[in-house]
Amino acid sequence: MPPRKPRLSPTERAHRAIARMSAGTAAGQIESAAPVRAFDVPKLPQTAGRGLLFHIPGSVATGIYEAYFPSYAGAIKSVRIGADGPPSGGSCVVDLLINGTSAYPSAAKPTITSGNSYSSLTVPDTKTWAANAELAIEVESANGVTGLIIEILFV
Length: 155
Hints:
The protein is mostly beta strands. The chain contains one helix and eleven strands.
């Protein structure tokens, strides 16, 4: 019997999905605008719903990044972030904006702590968006993080 392949972490799976989509070898690429690429993933592994992946390549700076306007309504199950290069000297904090308003007015925002490469799952206070709503990523603090991936699971 051949040896089993090791299980990939959620961040590694997201990185591989983005690499395949970026190369144009997988369906589902929605938007390709510097500096962010957004991908609508029909079904992510080990989830009961769909997902949106936002990728900010290279060095990440604070600010609001390119928006995405899904043509469908959605209800967020969870959000998490991962990075190629972890932050140092502080955390990387990301907010999800729905029509310009934070989805996290009081809930803990997705955060990668110094020296780590991913956040835990977070659930925003505002969980739904209407068709054609504006979804944007705001990096509130970066602290040297590189290759940021934001994964939004929804139904």
